[in-house]
Amino acid sequence: MASKKKRARSSAASPRFEDFGLSATTLKVLRAVGYEKPTPIQAGMIPRAIDGDDLIGQARTGTGKTAAFAIPIIEVLETRRGKSPRALVLVPTRELAVQVRGEILRLAQGRRLTCVALYGGKPIRGQIEKLRRGADVIVGTPGRVLDHMSRRTLDLRELEIVVLDEADRMLDIGFRPDIERILRQCPAERQTLLLSATVPPPIERLAQRYMYEPVSLDFSPEDISVETIEQFYFTVEHSRKFELLQRLLTRDNPRQAIVFCRTKRRTETLFRRLSKQFQQTACIHGDMSQNNRDRVMERFRAGKIRYLIATDVVGRGIDVTSISHIVNFDTPQFCDDYVHRVGRTGRMGREGVAYTFVAPEEGPELTRIEQRINRQLRRDEISGFGAVPERAAAVPGAAKAPLTDTPGKPAAAPPPPPFGRRGRRHRRAL
């Protein structure tokens, strides 16, 4: 059925969890875990989801999207009916599956609700045994969920709620065919909740095909850059990025930081070099075993790891509230990857800072990022480090007196204009 879309925003001045008709058990748990008042997306989604509406919730990362669907699931599934799962949450990554399962169980304290995470990289026998014992909620990646369906160890006939979390990311990494195969096996009389930071045309087509008259709740600000995050860039040659990273970490002394690289090899190389200079350094990428990835994320959440070198495997959906700094060691190839990398800090209204290392030939990538977030990144400098063009020059292309690596020695030649264009800077976003 063609979807009948509506636009809705929370109109209440100061909504409270008590206003949503939640059970006394849920309200007690929310107070115990420190949920004082709902975020906008929680205030918009929770009462409508409990009423049974199909919903498209659009909001940037770090705004409490997990609780926005977890609380309605817990309320609806309060009465246990058997061993077959009644709710399915599909997520793009293994790490997010673990995190969502943990949050559901945290909010379901005092109830007999069971939740099982299904994802690759772990022995499937243990997951099969858990499913045999019964599960009310399944949180899984599409590939592993399909694997269990093909083995007939997962029965979806009793499903009441299906959640597509980080839907844009799942489509980005090629999960659309798997998602559609799963949705076709779900009961027609179900509720579907879709959550996404962006709603591009492929998401709209998916919603139109598999959702019933969804209400679209848009809580993403017109300026999608996170207001609590300061965003800077450095102009630096590739060969000097590591030196700049050392100087930056020494200068800022972050509480916790994620350093993003494009490739697994770069991640490993940077980890080996940085761990010699800084303690409490670790790395995470897709080629690591799942046990090692789980161990790294557990230590990072516990604050035992201070600097995490990572690929985009942790660029979406990982909620570690103590992260103060994000460093894009490699400029993201795609604008949305920048948005989600930076969204790892400044979560739930906290302050954070993000730095992007931009090589001279990467000016167009920086411009596209600025156009995407409708905001200019500010140029940063580290005293005495290389030839850094002047911040906010009055005339495009104007350079200040050349700096040198060695104090007291004149530079051999003035620095080249930034981003490879002679006498011109790259075009800036509006």
Number of strands: 15
Biggest sheet statistics = 8 strands, parallel
Order of strands, main sheet, comes to 1-8-2-7-6-3-5-4
CATH homologous superfamily of the largest domain?
P-loop containing nucleotide triphosphate hydrolases
Number of domains: 2
Tell me the number of helical segments per DSSP (H or I, 4 or more residues long).
Answer: 14
State Rg.
23 Å
Could you explain the architecture of this structure?
The structure is a single chain. With 430 residues, the protein is an alpha/beta fold. The chain has two domains: 213 residues, P-loop containing nucleotide triphosphate hydrolases (Rossmann fold, 3-Layer(aba) Sandwich), CATH 3.40.50.300; 192 residues, P-loop containing nucleotide triphosphate hydrolases (Rossmann fold). The protein contains 14 helices and 15 strands. The strands form two sheets. The chain has an eight-stranded parallel sheet with strand order 1-8-2-7-6-3-5-4, sandwiched between helices. Helix 3 crosses helix 4. The longest helix has 14 residues. It starts with 5 loop residues before the first strand and ends in a 51-residue tail after the last strand. The N terminus and C terminus are likely disordered.
